[in-house]
Amino acid sequence: MLEKVKLSIVIPTKNEGKYIGQTIGQFEEYLEKYDLEIIISDADSRDETAAEVRRWQEKFGERVKLVIGPAKQNIAIGRNLGAVEAKGELLFHTDADVRIPNKDRFFQTVFAKFDKSDIVAATVPIWVYPEESGLPDRLYHILMNAVIRLSFTVGVYLAKGECQLVRRSIFEKIKGYNETIVAGEDCNLFYRLHKEGRIGYFYRLAVHHSPRRFR
Hints:
By secondary structure, the chain is α/β, with parallel strands linked by helices. It is built from seven helices and nine strands, in the order E-H-E-H-E-H-E-H-E-E-H-E-H-H-E-E. A seven-stranded mixed beta sheet has the order 3-2-1-4-7-5-8, with helices on both faces. It has a two-stranded parallel ribbon with strand order 6-9. It is globular and about 45 Å long.
């Protein structure tokens, strides 16, 4: 059994064999360094997703968990099933294709912000993989990130599922993601979280994702 987990990375999957291995592998040098665990919440994938996760389990042991849920589930259910298995004080909800460009800076900043403030949740700007990013992608994400940041100033608190950092105690208090919502569970979560405390926007950090969802 793991003696200490500070942050749990929760990733819902459904036939993500193309991406999940690289996504897990990016944390190889950081799991023990920052007391991390990775929880893959899989919706009974029919491809190599589970096999890929198990290969990483052989290498990382208990720091990588695989949760197999029902094939028919929305993403809110998948995220919640993963969170149930989490041991970390912080939850990092993300997606199967997300990469972090500077992981030392990312985790050091996240821990410093949560340790020294009353923040209950936070997010960061989202960009496309640099090697796949064209001008339309950059313009779209400039606008998207600006809208998200503006939403924090007007009390709406939009946030995308690529990066949702939440104190586990608060996540459990509000009973996680709303499983009756087919889409928009990410924004709904942050709207409910803002009633529990301060929401952070760490604009100096970033995560990258593939452009597959909007091309």
